[in-house]
Amino acid sequence: MKRILSLLVATTLSVFSITAQELENSTLWKIEGNGLENPSYLFGTIHITCDATLEGDVKKALDETTQIVMELDMDDPNMQMKMMKGMYLKDGKTLKDFVSEEEYKTIDSLFINNMGMSVKMMENIKPFFLSSMFYPKMLDCPMQSFELELTKIAKEQKEEIYGLETIEEQIKVFDNIPLEDQYADLIRMAENNLEDDKDIFAKMLKVYKEENITALLDMMDDDKNKTVSNHQDKLLNERNENWISKIGKYAKDQPTFFGVGAGHLAGDNGVINLLRDAGYTVTAIVE
């Protein structure tokens, strides 16, 4: 359960992006040069999907590396406890402090219809945690995850897993975004009972399967979502920039397989371009 919860947080973060320069259609990239003795690999994941089967080129990259680094350290035994500490609103605030009575009823109906429970028991939980609970409901299939697959591979190969961020750092991203914007998005989800979100998620899965990371960014830049349109620097750009030195350190230590949300790859401020700016050679693996 702790891994599922952390995936939902990561999903909320990774679907936020900006329109970007076009790159090759690939979710797997080789990182070389700039003092690296051996290549590392960068793999763009989608955190929640219907099919998390790892392709042959990805398995080969995993065989050629000796550690796995994802957005979060997925085998951290303290992750659930750390997440629980950051789930709740401060100063005794609840959902009713941010929405009207009618909006509250609409949100409550969303929970009853999709989760089989009222939101009353969760009124003091932060809005992005409430919203993230519905991501599995946007799939028309049992949920799978590339992060869980990579965690499984790491155990099989007896390799360490590390994170580019801590769960506290991911939660802090949303703590720096006005709650009013986050509640506005929750209200929007409730008003159409997830229908728009399900349609967008289905299109996203199709584009991801095509490995078109540029098109993935283009379709994610939806200004109907206030959290996305008003706060992209916090959600994407600053995080990408913070990762580059960490990626370099891990890659210089030993050949590393990096798995991050595919929404982080493309764009002027995407991980691929930032790594190139830092002096690395980053090339697409295309089969």
Short account of what is shown:
The chain is α/β, with parallel strands linked by helices and 287 residues long. It is built from 13 helices and six strands. A six-stranded mixed β-sheet has the order 4-3-5-2-1-6, sandwiched between helices.
Notes on the structure:
The protein has 287 residues and is an alpha/beta fold. The chain has one domain (2-77, 139-178, 193-284). The protein is built from 13 helices and six strands. β1 (28-32) and β2 form a beta hairpin. α4 crosses α8. It is globular. It starts with a helix and ends with a strand. The model is unreliable at 14-21 (pLDDT under 50).
What general outline do the C-alpha atoms trace? globular
If strands are numbered along the chain, what order do they take across the biggest sheet? 4-3-5-2-1-6
The description of the largest β-sheet is: 6 strands, mixed
List the total number of helices: 13
Low-pLDDT ranges:
14-21
The end-to-end distance, rounded to whole angstroms, is: 35 Å
Which structural class is indicated by helix and strand composition?
alpha/beta
Radius of gyration: 19 Å
Helix content: 40-55%
Q: How is the secondary structure organized here?
A:
Layout: H1 2-14, E1 28-32, E2 40-45, H2 56-64, E3 67-70, H3 79-85, H4 101-115, H5 127-132, H6 146-156, E4 161-163, H7 167-175, H8 179-191, H9 195-209, H10 213-220, H11 226-230, H12 232-253, E5 256-261, H13 271-277, E6 281-284
List keywords for this structure.
287 residues; alpha/beta; 13 helices; 49% helix
